[in-house]
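Sample entry (114 residues):
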Amino acid sequence: MTKREWQIEMANRFAKRDNVNIEELDTRSYLLGRYDSTKTLTDEEIIESLAELEHEQWIKWASTIMQTEKISDGRIARWKDCFVSYADLSEEMKEFDREWARKALATLRKAQEK
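Predicted structure, serialized as tokens:
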């Protein structure tokens, strides 16, 4: 995937989440500055956005696993408690998503150096 393709994919994901018509926006500006192309996001803002995306991805993954694999009732109950929006998670649960967001951001930073 090229850098531009990645930017478009990420912008589309954020736009879908934010209910924004992506065709009306410049995808790079939207991804990096959300609505204001003059604003630069801080690392913490990027981490929160990626963590939210990670949580959405986890919900889809967990839902699929629950339907296709034999999972214990206890695990299903724990997972279902987390089937809420990122904003509604406890800080402790958000930190699990932030951990992956930090890894993703570090990977992106390394890719930018090349």
